[in-house]
Design a protein that fits this description.
Blueprint: H1 2-6, E1 7-9, H2 11-26, H3 32-56, E2 62-67, E3 72-73, E4 78-86, E5 92-98, E6 111-115, E7 120-127, E8 133-137, E9 140-145, E10 151-157, E11 161-166, H4 171-180, E12 201-206, H5 218-224, E13 228-232, E14 239-245, E15 253-254, E16 257-258, H6 259-276, E17 280-286, E18 290-297, H7 302-311, H8 322-332, E19 338-342, H9 348-364, E20 366-372, H10 375-382, H11 388-413, E21 417-421, H12 426-440
Parallel strand pairs: 3-11, 14-17, 14-19, 19-20, 20-21
Antiparallel strand pairs: 1-10, 2-4, 4-7, 5-6, 5-9, 8-11, 9-10, 12-13, 15-16, 17-18
């Protein structure tokens, strides 16, 4: 039974059979072809028999392993490597069909390869996931045949392997250079701040030579009969929160990734840069409720906590409740922090509904609202309109693009910083803004 399950007739066999049928048909008109057709049947049967013995001799003539990463990086190219060994006494020709996860919706996956006798070979291919979650790989199927290519034997390996897909951790190395290149004007690093001069009180300590005389605490000095000074929180330990809107406005896709996943990938990279800059990184997500809260800290396990929280963000894309977000921030984030809200506003009316809550948050914290340009609108605006319908579409696209600029001006009017960016430039623009604020001493 196992033999029949692994036995496959190749297309070349059917081509040969069709050719013989044609010879028999033509033999009605040219009798000489009848004998040739009979001889062809005999040759075909002998070739199939010999080919069968070559391919099916022995049990484990092909060995293969699939090498997968521990986790896939969302939105990035991930390498999958197949290691194959040929134990046949002839060069094996292979059709490799890997049952890749259903999320990719690739129905025609096939790799052709050949391996010399008693040799090994590595075959690579790349996968780019577009959503987070669990990805299940099925069997690795390899169909081996000889150069005759009339029959093939199927070898099957590695059934049901699960690999989780996390936010884009591969970008961390890419953006690590932003933390190293301290002389780059592109990222706003124009001056070095002095430490210990924030307004966030930490403790009262004994005066030592070199302390700022302006920080002397005269009441404590009188009580202890020696100079005491106020010590303020280190400027390198400021809390920064990434707030991710997971409501319906973040469902819009660009290049296969939703705006939500772009925001998640950006948050992961930004948190890494924040911790490298000795600040405290934290995050939360919101729609109808507040979820995935990670308190801003600077510890060795912080990146892992943030990575797991980003991986576990789930949403039904409900309407976002900014009122609940404001209440949560007011209650739980008591120190002045830099808060970056990843959201999206398409119209000025949409902003005005949430503006009171944004203004309230901005009173206690340094707020940055991050929202997105529509690349497709830009292409529509720059394209040439040739019909009346195209003129209408172009005018409407220009109206929406203009509203985005109005939203930026409206936020600026109330002292709220904003970032209007394309999805693909989200991470770099957000990092630039953070480093600019840090260099200017705004938080």
């Amino acid at each position: 039974m196992k033999l029949f399950k692994s036995f496959y007739i190749q297309p070349r066999f059917f081509y040969a059979g069709i050719s013989i049928v044609v010879l028999f048909a033509l033999s009605y008109f040219v009798p000489l072809l009848f004998n040739i057709a009979q001889l062809s049947i005999l040759v075909l049967v002998l070739l199939v028999f010999c080919d069968f013995l070559m391919v099916f001799a022995g049990k484990k003539r092909i060995e293969a392993t699939r090498q997968l990463p521990d986790k896939l990086s969302n939105g990035d190219k991930n390498l999958v490597t197949l290691h194959i060994t040929n134990s046949y006494t002839f060069t094996a020709y292979l059709d490799i069909i890997d049952e890749i996860p259903e999320q990719f919706q690739i129905r025609d996956f096939k790799i052709k390869a050949h391996i010399s006798s008693q040799k090994s070979k590595s075959v690579n291919y790349w996968l780019t996931p577009k959503e987070r979650g669990e990805y299940y790989f099925g069997s690795l199927n390899i169909y081996a045949h000889s150069i005759v290519n009339l029959v093939a034997k199927r070898f099957s390996f590695h059934k049901d392997t699960m690999v989780p897909t996390y936010p884009s951790f591969l970008q961390l190395k890419k953006f690590e250079l932003l933390n190293i290149n301290r002389n780059s004007l592109e990222y706003g690093l124009k001056k070095v701040r002095r430490l210990g001069h924030s307004m966030e009180f930490e403790q009262i300590k004994d005066y030592v030579i070199g302390d700022d005389l302006r920080t002397i605490n005269w009441k404590a000095t009188a009580k202890k009969n020696q100079l005491m000074v106020n010590q303020f929180q280190d400027e390198k330990s400021q809390p920064v929160y990434a707030v991710i809107d997971k409501g319906r406005v973040m469902k819009m896709p660009f290049n296969g990734l939703s705006l939500l996943d772009y925001a998640i990938n950006s948050t992961l990279v930004l948190s890494h840069i924040i911790l490298k800059k000795h600040d405290k990184a934290g995050m939360l997500s919101f729609s109808k409720k507040i979820n995935n809260v990670v308190v801003a800290e600077r510890r060795s396990t912080q990146m892992q906590l943030i990575l797991e929280s980003l991986y576990n963000i789930k949403t039904d894309f409900y309407e976002s409740d900014f009122n609940r977000l404001y209440g949560n921030i007011k209650k739980h984030i008591t120190h002045r922090s830099l808060i970056l809200i990843y959201t999206n506003f398409e119209t000025l009316d949409g902003l005005n509904r949430q503006l009171p809550y944004l203004k309230a948050i901005n009173k206690s914290h340094l707020l940055v609202v991050i929202f997105f340009k529509n690349n497709e609108l830009k292409q529509l605006i720059t394209s040439k309109a040739e019909t009346t319908q195209q003129v209408y579409d172009k005018v409407i696209a220009e109206k929406f693009a203009f509203e985005k600029r109005l939203i930026v001006n409206e936020l600026k009017k109330y002292g709220i910083y904003s970032i209007l960016t394309t999805p693909e430039n989200l991470t770099i623009d957000t990092i630039n803004k953070y480093l600019e604020f840090k260099s200017r001493g705004l938080f």
